[in-house]
Task: structure prediction
Amino acid sequence: MTRLSVTVNDHPRFSVVSLNGDLDKTSAPRLEETLTEVLTRRQSRVIIDTTGLGFCDSSGIWTLLTTLRRAYERNGWLRLAGVHGVLGRLLELTKLADAFPIDRDVHESQQRAFGESALTDPLAKSR
Result:
């Protein structure tokens, strides 16, 4: 397993949280802490860049779902960018892919996010 590295880059209208490594029961609490801090002190609009994610288990999925709900409760949103591999398969198998706005990369997330209302419930996917 590769240790999870989490990087936050703040922008005027949103934050990008980049993940590199493995998201599992050991690293999920640290990611949840970081995402909670981003949502409460920085931005209610978050793009999670999963391009560098090598592995994800159910703890990671739970963290992403919890963050999605918290963002919506703060009239914000959460988008996933660069979903692939194990995370992509887990989201498909669990039928959770429709719960998240998923984009090819961060640039596409930015374009789509600001073409949509920031108050739209991300759980009610309209694609």
About this structure: The mean pLDDT is 90. The longest strand covers residues 45-56.
